[in-house]
Structures are given as structure tokens and as C-alpha cells.
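ugh ok so i messed up the first submission bc i forgot one of the chains. this is the corrected input, ALL of the components this time, i swear. 289 residues overall. if the numbers dont match what u have on ur side tell me asap before i send this to the collaborators (the ones from the other lab, u know who)
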Amino acid sequence: MTTEGTDMTQPEMAPSTAAAAPLPPPPGPADQATPLVAMRNINIAFGGVHAVRDVSIDLFPGELIGLVGHNGAGKSTLMRALAGAHPADSGEIFINGEAVTIKNPRDAKRYAIETIYQTLALAENIDAPGNMFLGRELTTRIGTLDDSSMESETRKIMHRLNPNFRSFAQPVRNLSGGQRQAIAIARAIYFNAKILVMDEPTAALGPSETAQVHDLVRQLKSEGIGIFLVSHDIHDVFDLSDRICVMYHGRVVDVVRPADVTSDEVLGMIILGKRPTEVTQEELAVLRT
Ligand SMILES: Nc1ncnc2c1ncn2[C@@H]1O[C@H](COP(=O)(O)OP(=O)(O)O)[C@@H](O)[C@H]1O
Ligand SMILES: [Mg+2]
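and heres the new structure output, hopefully the right one now
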């Protein structure tokens, strides 16, 4: 362990002065004591908009954190800081206990952080292997594109993710949303992602494709990959999350385990920005109307 201060008495969201002090680990196997990702006191502002305020959160191997909150709560901005798309103004990020600087997407990739967005960012005119290796093409010893290796590697990984996938030679524009999202996920994990950020990965998908992505997500978790899942779908989040992090106006309201809360309580946190114990009877009555 290179970090210190796993003091079990420290409250989770104490206004932090010691920036590097890790949050106490949640109850779990001892080998999960070092978070894959520890974000500490992250702040990000756009002009006058303080999009992320003093956010601290841990992600453990094989854990999925559901990140929820109303539009503009700061979820995507927080995740973009981890992905290197927009560095934080202040705060610290630790990967496996080690302080790191993530200034751009290349830095993020170096720490095995991959991001999947709802927009299904694939090249429409090329096939699955072409998309898998876009920008990271395999070449032969004489420097030409190694199409057969790219195809066989794609077959291997897609077999692991979705054994029914057969459309290796079709332009991805002809594929369903679920198949396309499987390619995006395959691409991330082929390049050894240990930390996956999924920002509304099923927003563009129908129910059966969403179910496919859920199966994929469970499999990735079982392989020890840590996942941040941003979702507006409270049912998805309850179904998949080990812990749920609620954000409100840039702050973390609370981090809770699905077994410890009802979906109404989480909705209350999203709408009111308060923990269930802090909500008044009047506010509850308003929520119910
Ligand atoms: N590139 C940007 N420029 C200016 N303001 C931004 C930018 N990105 C996000 N914001 C603002 O930051 C806040 C948080 O946005 P965002 O992280 O997208 O929220 P969420 O993903 O929770 O809906 C919002 O007020 C949003 O308008
Ligand atoms: Mg967003």
C-alpha cells in the first residue's frame, strides 16, 4: 500500500482538508482494499458554472457504480475528467493507490481507462474488425494491414461477449444498436480496459438490446473490471449497481447500496439533493404528488 489513512471512523463525505486521504473501504473481501480508482475533491467549472464540486468517490475491482442525478448534475463532466476529455481544475485521481495526472485521453488509456458513450461512436462504413482496430490497426511484419489477424482477434473477443454475433463482414451501419454497442465494448476491453466509463450506454437501445448490454456488463464485472455507469434509468441502476452515487448540482448527495434504499428514496435524493433522513414530511408529500 502506498497510500495511508484507511481510517474506518472517517465519515464518507466529510468536508475534506487532507486531499489524499482515501475513503474507508466498503465492507468486502480484503483483496478489494485498494480502489482501482479514487477521485478526491474534484472540482470543475465552466466560467460561472461550477459543474463538479468537491467530489470524492472510489471504484473497486469488479464493482459497478451507478452514477445518477438530474440533467446538468455533473455526471458526464466528472466522467470526462477521468477519461481525460476535460481535465479537472483541482483535485486528485489515484489509480491502484497511485496518484496520476490525466490530461488527455491518451493518459487515460495508459491507465487502462476506456469510455463508451451512448452515441455509439463507430465508423459506419466499415465492418466490425475495422472498427475494433480503428486507429490501432494490426500490421504484418512487412507493414501491410493484417486483416486476417484483425478478423480472428475480433471473432475471439466477440465470441466471449456475444456468441451469437455473426456479422463480421458487414458495415456496422447495417447492425442493430445492441450489436454496435457490443463492438464498442469489445473494442474497449480488447485494449485491456480495467476501468470502464459507460455514459448512458443503452439510451439509444431497445429493451432486448439493453438486456444484452446488461449481460455484457455483468460479465465484465465478473472479470474484475470496474465500471462507472451513468444512467437516467433508475431500474438499470438498481439492477446493475453495487453502489449508487447520487449527484445534485455538482455535488455527491450520497453513495448507497441498492439493498439499503428504495428506488423512491433514490429518486428523492435525485430530485431534492438530500439524503432520505434529511427529507421533511412536506417534501415527501410534494414528491408523492
Ligand atoms: N463544455 C461545457 N461548457 C460549458 N458548460 C458545460 C460544458 N459541459 C457541461 N457544462 C455544464 O456543466 C453542468 C454539468 O453538466 P453535465 O456534466 O453534462 O451534467 P449531466 O451529465 O449530469 O447531465 C451543466 O450545467 C452543463 O451545462
Ligand atoms: Mg450527461
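quick check: Residues 1-19 have pLDDT under 50 and may be disordered. that seems consistent at least. The radius of gyration is 20 Å.
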